[in-house]
Design brief:
This protein has twelve helices and eleven strands. With about 300 residues, the protein is an alpha/beta fold. The chain folds into three domains: about 60 residues, Arc Repressor Mutant, subunit A (Orthogonal Bundle), CATH 1.10.10; about 110 residues, D-Maltodextrin-Binding Protein, domain 2 (3-Layer(aba) Sandwich); about 100 residues, Periplasmic binding protein-like II (D-Maltodextrin-Binding Protein, domain 2, 3-Layer(aba) Sandwich), CATH 3.40.190. A hairpin with a 2-residue loop joins strand 1 and strand 2. Helix 1 crosses helix 2 and helix 2 crosses helix 3. It is elongated.
């Protein structure tokens, strides 16, 4: 039985996380035949099959499932060792991938990154602003901003900020219709909402909290496109105040209807104390505090 090559573990992790040979090879920057040889070599060294090769992709066997946790811990240890060596040399470098909801990443964070990258020129930031949850154990992100606190996993989570949402319409839509005076009047209007089976968190299911009589006639998978649809006069929509209130084409409807949600910052327990991760965490905390409560809660 051949000796195990430790360099084959990243190949195993890439396929375990992605499930597709070609895509995993692209992620690692190698060709798919090389990746296939590495996984086969690891299986030969361990004397067991780690994946079932199916038409839909690679699926972990029971042995592969057992190896996955150990391989992830070794990966975390390697990341920590490298970071500690960098810190000992007073050098903060590398990459921090930050996953956020699209509204937070686009309307709050993106424009504020210039201050951070100016202060940390050797540290690279990858901002992934998508309507989805991120798996830190699969290294989809080093830090994640989420709308819900995770209930499982070796994760560290703390609340970043509460923020408020309200009902909005375009000025043209509002002016062309009878004034809305109460929640009961809302049922007679067209609504822009989420595609139900694409909701990545139940926190986005706003309309039942306002009234059980409300149902979206236009369903859109992300909040930025929803904002543009409301702005264009498609109908009423629930939007975060920090995104909508400064748009001259949007007006609040029934300002007394107010929903509150939270943003949570999530880090992997094994890497949250790395200096580069801590620097991004501190930057986010400072920027949220500097924006102030009226930014997040005011209409």
């Amino acid at each position: 039985m051949p000796d195990m090559d430790w360099n084959d573990l990243p190949a195993f992790l890439a396929i375990a996380r992605i499930g597709r040979l070609t895509t995993a090879a692209q992620r690692l920057g190698i060709d798919h035949s090389t990746l296939s040889r590495r996984v086969s070599g690891l299986e030969a060294a361990l004397g067991t099959r780690l994946f079932d090769r199916r038409s839909t992709g690679f699926v972990l066997t029971a042995a592969g499932e057992r190896l996955l946790g150990d391989a992830e811990r070794m990966e975390s240890l390697a990341i920590t060792m490298r970071a500690h060596l960098d810190e000992a040399s007073h050098r903060v470098s590398g990459t921090v991938r930050l996953g956020t909801p699209e509204g937070f990443g686009t309307y709050f964070l993106a424009a504020r990154l210039s201050e951070f990258v100016g202060a940390q020129p050797d540290l690279e930031i990858e901002l992934v602003a998508n309507p989805r949850s991120f798996s830190l154990s699969k290294r989809e992100a080093d830090l994640a901003v989420s709308m819900a606190r995770p209930e499982t996993g070796r994760l560290y989570a703390r609340k970043l900020v509460d923020y408020a949402l309200g009902i909005y319409a375009s000025r043209a839509y509002r002016d062309a219709r009878v004034a809305i005076g109460s929640v009961a009047d809302l049922a007679g209007h067209r609504w822009v909402g989420y595609v139900e089976d694409l909701l990545w968190t139940s926190e986005l299911n706003y309309l039942p909290q306002i009234s059980s009589a409300l149902h979206p006639g236009v369903r859109i998978s992300n909040v930025i496109t929803q904002l543009e649809a409301v702005r264009g006069g498609v109908g009423l929509g629930v939007l975060p105040h920090f995104m909508a209130r400064n748009d001259p084409n949007l007006v609040p409807v029934l300002p007394e209807v107010r929903l509150v949600r939270s943003y949570w910052l999530i880090a992997h327990a094994e890497t949250r104390d790395l200096l580069r991760v801590k620097l991004v965490t501190e930057f986010l905390t400072q920027q949220i505090a500097a924006a102030g409560e009226p930014f997040w809660m005011g209409a």
